[in-house]
Write a structure and sequence with these properties.
This protein is of the alpha+beta class. The protein has nine helices and six strands. The chain folds into two domains: 362 residues, Outer membrane efflux proteins (OEP), CATH 1.20.1600; 76 residues, Outer membrane efflux proteins (OEP) (Single Sheet).
């Protein structure tokens, strides 16, 4: 009965906990029948088919593999993200340790003079050299309101969120390298094609110049072909500069200095077959996006911190004990035949009676932080859905354009073959053959750009689908 009365007195002494107000709500995605489906089996098919943790190996390019694997070891931003994860793990370990009892040892040696005018009685006006030696000081926090548990769960949520953020950094780094390397391969190919175009333009210029000098044509074609040749020279210089900039960027992403860029070899990059994408994608794929998972973990953590703020309105109880030797006279400490032995154990209770609005302010702060986390998750989810839908559209467009350009090249080759036969039979002039060869090279230049666009769309689609990221402990989405 006394214990019940004691507890009631404690509760009456607590600060008044405000009523819960309306909180932000997690967004629930409706079926996106035109872009995303609700059947998660589609998601698993895609993830296991090609969106794997080392997705870049689908490009069958050893140099690309080397660049990405070097960056994953050397990139400073990735090292910083790893360090932030280590910090989050340490905080979680600390919170876990806080739930366990602590045992310490204290030793205090002192010299004290007691005042004659105070209440020290016969000891007043004397000086003592004494010691307090406590080899065992025990403390254990009674987690009556699950405050420590909520702190630990909040810390674990932040740790999981930081692990997902590390995955975001790895994904963005690897896709950035893939994009830049694909573009480098493309511009290196463009340099070769532009050199061939320049040779054909020079050949054509020589031909029309000779005809003009022989009085067989006006000077207009000469000037027109001179302009075409200089335009090609400008394009070639521009593309060569772009290649150097891409090399510098790749070296920096790999965590190397710019001289390292000279070791990068641009080789043909391709996907063996078109990726097996179903007609519709599942919203379950978004669970493989580390940014979405990180945002959800931050919601979970923020919810636990609200719980922690609420427990501050309740009494806080610690069980404290000690055992040791205590004496005003140091010489009596070990020679008193047990008279210096001291020990004690009991609860200490802290009551939040008047805090000047501090507890209310902290609770509002954590509630607002939860709302921010929820709306951030909602925005991240909406952006994820848009990015997936956009990249699907771009991916499909590049497939159609790639196929169309392949037919255009076949037509250009057939035209060149026909023109060669006519030229050999004396039915057409040399300049007509040069023009046809020039047209085929331009079609090949366009094909290079369109194929590069397709590869970049593949990288983009892999990125928005999470790059094969797997989270083994997804948050519940329930508060």
């Amino acid at each position: 009965m006394k214990i019940v009365l004691f507890i009631l007195l404690l509760l009456n002494g607590c600060a008044w906990l405000p009523e819960d107000s309306k909180r932000a709500e997690l967004l629930q995605l409706s079926p996106q029948t035109q872009t995303l489906a609700t059947d998660n089996s589609h998601a698993e098919k895609i993830i296991h088919a090609w969106v794997k943790p080392q997705w870049w190996r689908n490009f069958h390019n050893m140099e690309l593999n080397r660049l990405i694997e070097t960056a994953l070891k050397e990139n400073p931003s990735l090292h910083a993200a790893t360090a932030r994860l280590t910090q989050a793990e340490a905080v979680a370990d600390f919170q876990e340790a806080e739930m366990l009892p602590s045992i310490n040892a204290n030793a205090e040696f002192h010299q004290r003079r007691f005042s004659k005018t105070d209440f020290y009685g016969s000891n007043g006006g004397q000086t003592f050299t004494g010691a307090y030696i406590d080899p065992a000081v025990f403390r254990y926090h009674l987690d009556l309101w699950d405050k420590d548990k909520a702190k630990l769960e909040a810390a674990l949520g932040k740790e999981q969120a930081q692990a997902s953020e590390l995955a975001v950094t790895q994904l963005l780094l690897s896709t950035a390298i893939a994009r830049n390397y694909i573009e480098l391969c493309s511009v290196e190919e463009d340099v070769e094609l532009l050199e061939k175009l320049t040779e054909k333009a020079q050949e054509k210029l020589q031909f029309v110049t000779l005809r003009w000098q022989q009085g067989l044509s006006s000077q207009d074609p000469v000037h027109a072909n001179e302009q075409k040749l200089e335009t090609l020279n400008q394009q070639k210089v521009s593309v060569q500069t772009q290649a150097q900039l891409l090399r510098n960027r790749l070296a920096t992403l790999a965590g190397k200095q710019t001289d390292w860029a000279k070791t990068i070899h641009a080789t043909e990059t391709h996907v063996a077959v078109y990726l097996p994408l179903p007609d519709v994608l599942s919203i379950g794929l978004l669970a493989h996006r580390p940014d979405v998972v990180a945002a959800l973990w931050r919601v979970e953590s923020a919810a636990k911190l609200i719980q922690v703020a609420k427990t501050e309105f309740y009494p806080d109880v610690n069980l404290v004990g000690f055992a040791g030797l205590r004496s005003l006279n140091l010489k009596d400490l070990f020679l008193s035949h047990g008279a210096s032995v001291a020990y004690g154990i009991g609860p200490t209770v802290t009551l939040p009676i008047f805090e000047g609005g501090r507890l209310d302010a902290e609770l509002k702060n954590q509630q607002a932080a939860y709302d921010v986390a929820v709306e951030t998750y909602n925005q991240t989810l909406l952006i994820a859905v848009q990015q997936v839908a956009d990249n699907i559209a771009q991916w499909r467009q590049t497939i159609e354009q790639d196929a169309s350009q392949a037919r255009a090249i076949e037509a250009a080759k057939a035209e060149l073959n026909l023109m060669q036969n006519r030229y050999q039979a004396g039915l057409s002039s040399r300049d007509g053959l040069i023009d046809t060869e020039f047209d085929l090279l331009q079609q090949q230049l366009t094909d290079s750009k369109l194929h590069t666009a397709h590869l970049l769309s593949v990288v983009g689609l892999i990125e928005v689908l999470g790059g094969g990221y797997e989270n083994q402990a997804l948050p519940s989405k329930k508060q």
